[in-house]
Amino acid sequence: MRWARVLAALLILAFPARAETCRGTVHLTIDTGWMDRAEQIAEVMRRHGVKATLFLADERTWRGDTALSDSWAGFWRARAAEGHAFGSHTLRHWYFRGDVGTDRVRYVPWGAREGTTLDAEGLCGELRAVEDRLRAMTGRGLDPIWRAPGGRTTPNALRFAEQCGFRHIGWTANGFLGDELPSDRYPNRALVAQSLRAIRDGEVLVMHWGIRSRQEKYADVFEELIVGLKARGFCFATLTEPTPRLVAEARR
Questions:
Q1: Does 159 fall in a domain?
Q2: Is position 128 within any domain?
Q3: Calpha distance 58→223 (Å, rounded)
């Protein structure tokens, strides 16, 4: 982690003017995950003035609690005060495994074959339950966006969510930062180098507040990614901000 901070500081000194020149916009999104590096990641974003879009689910965390329990209220209040956007990642963080006719969708825990089925009301309940928890902790609700766990959707799931006012947000291929991949095969340095080569204007990036299974924690090179992208002239915006690119697309 120490070498990553030193490299980030050197990049700031080497590219001060370019880092302030907005030649493109990228959208960082963060899913809940194991939450074990949440404070470290949040501190990097504070230091560099980066706003992100945060997708919340009530997942288990390293503390033995869940990400939307009262013990995390202070963390989410701080993120709300910093101006980040918030979307639903479903309450239980189960996975959509196919439609059942035209009025239901299969919803299954990770690694399981059986789960339950949801109709439109049930799916909307999964999304809105996240909003209820966020409002109780921070006093604010969600933005009208959601992300299916694993990014896996079905036609019914998308339609049901749209009916209750939620637009689905995935990520771009180049925006997959790889923080959930096994670190023996995908070390941090390789992941960051790939991202800095591949990311282009308009990309939607995805990462987590921590991944339990990854041995080499991506948070240790997160600052290098942020500084490197700023050095290339990228600005960061939430998915709810009217960036020039999004405004232009809205006018078509």
A1: no
A2: no
A3: 26
Q: Residue 180: inside a domain, yes or no?
A: yes
Give the pair of three-digit tokens for residue 117: 């089925």
**Residue 85, SS3?**
strand
Of 207, 195, 226, which is closest to residue 33 (Cα–Cα)?
A: 207
The Cα 107–Cα 114 span in angstroms is: 8
Range of the domain at 30: 2-87+140-153+167-251
Distance CA 137, CA 72 (A): 8
Q: Render the burial of 151-187: b for 16+ CB within 10 Å, e for the rest.
A: eebbebbbebbeeeebeebebbebbbbbbbbebeebb
Is residue 38 assigned to a domain?
Answer: yes
With cut-offs at 50, 70 and 90, classify the pLDDT of residue 248: very low
Render pLDDT for 127-162 as a digit per residue (tens, 0 to 9): 999 999 999 999 999 999 999 999 999 999 999 999
Q: Cα–Cα distance between 206 and 173 in angstroms, integer?
A: 10
Q: Copy the structure tokens of residue 46.
A: 């504070």
Range list of β-strands (E), 50-142: 53-56, 85-88, 95-100, 104-108, 116-118
pTM greater than 0.85 (yes/no):
yes
pLDDT per position as a tens digit, 38-87: 999 999 999 999 999 999 999 999 999 999 999 999 999 999 999 999 99
How many independent structural domains does the chain possess? Answer: 1
Find the CATH number of the domain harbouring 244: 3.20.20.370
